[in-house]
Write a structure and sequence with these properties.
Elements lengths: L2 H25 L25 E2 H18 L3 H17 L10 E2 L5 E3 L5 H17 L2 H19 L19 E3 L1 H17 L2 H19 E2 L4 E2 L2 E3 L12 E2 L1 H18 L2 H18 L11 E2 L13 E2 H18 L2 H17 L11 E2 L5 E3 L11 H18 L8
Antiparallel strand pairs: 1-2, 2-3, 4-7, 5-6, 8-9, 10-11, 11-12
C-alpha cells in the first residue's frame, strides 16, 4: 500500500472515530447520570428507547472508554464514563453465586441470567483495560478471577456455580461451540499483555487454540464450523452446518495477532486460511457485503437474518484484512480491503446523525434505524477504528504489528 494512501486512511479512521462515533455516544443517552453504567438501546438520534441495561455492554463500554484513554491520553469525560461503568458492574451485575447477569434494570435490579459466560468475558477485557488506566490492583485481580472462572467452566462444565438445565438433552446430543474458545483466546491475550503473566496465559491460549483447530477448523472443506460434535464430527443439520463468516474472520485476526506475538508461522497460515475461506464463502457477489450466516452445503439456513449485512461483521473484516496485509504484504489483501472499505463506508454510516446503522437488508438498504440495543453499542465499531488506525500507523512507520488485544 502506498504511503500517501496509508496516511490518508489513518487520518480518515481517526477523524471518523473521534468526530463521528465517539462524539455520537458522548452526546447520546448512553451514560446513565442517575444510576451509573450504560444504556445502549438508543434510537437513531441517540435517545433511549429502552432503559434496561445489557451486562455485556457494561463490560464492553468499560473497555472502550478505558482503551480510548490508554491510546490517546486521559480525557476526563472518557475516564469518568469508565469509572461509572466499573462501579455499576461491581455493584449490580454479579449474582451471589459469582456468575453474572445478562440484563438488569436501569437501577441495577437483575432481570435475566444465561448459561453462557459472555458477560464474564466482557468483564475480563473491560477490567483488564481499566486496570491499565487506573492502576488499581483489585481491578486486575477481578479480571483474572473471572477469566479463571470462564476457563474452569470451559474445561469442566460441572464446575459452573450456575446450575441450569442444558440447552439440549446432553444424554442425546452434546455440541462444542466455537464461541467459547473465541472469547477465551481473545481475553487471555488481553490479560497476557496487561498482567505480564506470559507463560500462564500462553499455556491456556495454546490449549484453547488446539480445540479450535482440531475440532472446528476443516481444511478439507475450507471452512470453520460454529458447532461440531465433541469429537469434531459434523452434525448434518442446520446447527451443525452453520458457518458464521464474521465470527471466523474476527477469530482469524485474534489468531494472527497471537501468531505474530509468538512467531508461530504455522498458526499464522491457518489464520490466513480462515480469513480467505470466510471471504470466499461469505461475500455476496450480487450486492456486496458479507452474509451473516451460510450453510456448509448451501442448504437452507434456519436463521431468518442469514442474508442480512451486520455492522460488526464488517468491522472485523476491516481489522483482519489490514492485519493480513501488514503481516504478509500480499496484494490480494489490499484488493479485498479496498473492496470492503468501499462497501462499508457507502452503506453503514448515518451521514445525518452519526454513528452506523447496525442492520442492513441483503441489498444494502437499512433495516433498523436505531444505533444501539442490547447487542449493539460502543464496542465493535470504535474498536475497529482504533485498531485500523494503529495498524495503519505501524504500516506508515515501517514498524511491527502492534499487539491488537
Amino acid at each position: 500500500m502506498q504511503q500517501a494512501k496509508i496516511a490518508k486512511l489513518k487520518n480518515f479512521y481517526h477523524a471518523h472515530l473521534m468526530d463521528d462515533v465517539v462524539a455520537y455516544w458522548m452526546r447520546s443517552d448512553l451514560i446513565d447520570k442517575e444510576y451509573g453504567g450504560f444504556i445502549t438501546s438508543v434510537d437513531r438520534e441517540g435517545k433511549s428507547y429502552n432503559d434496561d441495561k445489557s451486562v455485556w455492554f457494561q463490560g464492553r463500554a468499560l473497555w472502550t472508554f478505558s482503551k480510548l484513554c490508554n491510546l490517546y491520553g486521559v480525557n476526563e469525560q472518557w475516564a469518568s464514563a469508565a469509572d461509572a461503568g466499573a462501579r455499576f458492574i461491581k455493584e449490580h451485575c454479579i449474582d451471589a453465586d459469582g456468575r453474572m447477569y445478562f440484563t438488569v434494570t436501569k437501577d441495577g435490579k437483575p432481570l435475566r441470567k444465561r448459561r453462557y459466560f459472555f458477560s464474564e468475558s466482557f468483564l475480563v477485557v473491560g477490567f483488564a483495560e481499566y486496570y491499565a488506566l487506573r492502576k488499581n490492583a483489585d481491578d486486575l485481580a477481578l479480571a483474572e478471577k473471572y477469566f479463571d472462572l470462564m476457563y474452569s467452566i470451559y474445561k469442566d462444565p460441572a464446575s459452573d456455580p450456575f446450575k441450569i438445565t442444558p440447552k439440549e438433552n446432553a444424554e442425546v446430543r452434546s455440541l462444542h461451540s466455537n464461541s467459547y474458545p473465541m472469547v477465551l483466546v481473545s481475553s487471555a491475550q488481553t490479560l497476557r499483555r496487561i498482567s505480564g503473566k506470559t507463560e500462564y496465559y500462553d499455556a491456556i491460549i495454546k490449549d484453547v487454540i488446539a480445540d479450535m483447530l482440531n475440532l472446528h477448523y476443516k481444511e478439507d472443506l475450507k471452512c470453520v464450523l460454529e458447532n461440531v460434535q465433541l469429537d469434531g464430527g459434523i452434525l448434518d443439520n442446520p446447527t451443525g452446518r452453520t458457518i458464521n463468516p464474521g465470527h471466523t474472520i474476527e477469530n482469524s485476526w485474534f489468531l494472527m495477532n497471537y501468531a505474530h506475538q509468538t512467531g508461530d508461522n504455522e498458526l499464522l497460515q491457518k489464520a490466513l486460511n480462515m480469513l480467505d475461506w470466510s471471504l470466499d464463502i461469505g461475500w455476496d457477489k450480487k450486492y456486496g457485503g458479507v452474509y451473516y450466516f451460510r450453510d456448509l452445503y448451501n442448504r437452507p439456513c434456519e436463521q431468518l437474518e442469514h442474508d442480512m449485512k451486520l455492522w460488526w461483521v464488517h468491522n472485523e473484516c476491516l481489522i483482519a484484512l489490514l492485519t493480513a496485509l501488514h503481516l504478509t504484504g500480499d496484494k490480494k489483501y489490499e484488493k479485498w480491503y479496498d473492496k470492503m472499505h468501499k462497501y462499508v463506508f457507502a452503506h453503514f454510516p448515518d451521514k445525518t446523525y452519526g454513528e452506523w446503522y447496525g442492520y442492513l437488508h441483503r441489498d444494502g438498504t437499512v433495516s433498523h434505524t436505531q444505533k444501539g440495543s442490547l447487542w449493539k453499542g460502543p464496542y465493535h465499531l470504535p474498536r475497529c477504528l482504533m485498531l485500523c488506525e494503529s495498524i495503519l500507523s505501524a504500516m506508515e512507520n515501517g514498524t511491527a504489528l502492534p499487539d491488537l488485544l
